[in-house]
Amino acid sequence: MADPPKLYLQRGQPPGVPPLALTGERTLPDVPEENYWYRRHLVVYEWIARQVAGLRVADLACGEGYGSDVLARGGAAAVVGVDANPEAHEHARLRYTRDGLRFVRTLVEVYDEPCDAIAFLQTIEHVRNPGEILDRFKELVGPDGVVFVSTPNVLTLAPPGAERSGNPWHVVEYRPAEFGALCRAHFASVQLYGLFHARMLALHEVALGLGWDEIHRRLGITQRFYDRFTPAIGVRDFALRRGTSRELTGALDIVAVLRA
Q: What is the pLDDT of residues 164-176, one digit of tens each?
């Protein structure tokens, strides 16, 4: 009989804050094995935070709440983190108590508080009605607002030759051109950015191309290497660059900045 999958829980949570379990549905901080994905998402939140200082921001499908906290810490006038999951909502409400930050438990589709900016990150691939949701966002922010939407690039997420990544939580996985077309069908102004490896992760890519995976397997150090390498990844090991759909073919994630 196969061993059950290992359960990863968040470490070092403040007193009274229940740790969340890593299920693959959402990214979590404080799980060393998840650090690559956490930093990959965090760098986008930090970039958005610099764009929304002084604005009222809704972080929709906020999950654990770390991104909402980043937006509030970055100088937004007010931030609302919205998520329907009861465990994630309770965790976020208890852990992140910064002034100007609050959390609401409801579905993204029915959230109706006007705002100046919306962040909807790594979630549009989870929904069956993306066009309706984008139209709803446009209503919420009004003619002068801005919407930030990100999604993984299936061209780099899926195994070579595969059409999908195999993530059971994803309904649709987008190529850059497909994602751009979806956004342009609902917003007049669409700017696309791509997230790429930089610094340590860029060097790691070069090493993999030179056969590093085979070398560490032969030496028997795979687990020891990645036990040190993964927790050491930081936001500076990613770079966000603007580009066309063609230029973003090799991006890890695609970030759209949308205005009416």
A: 888 888 999 999 9
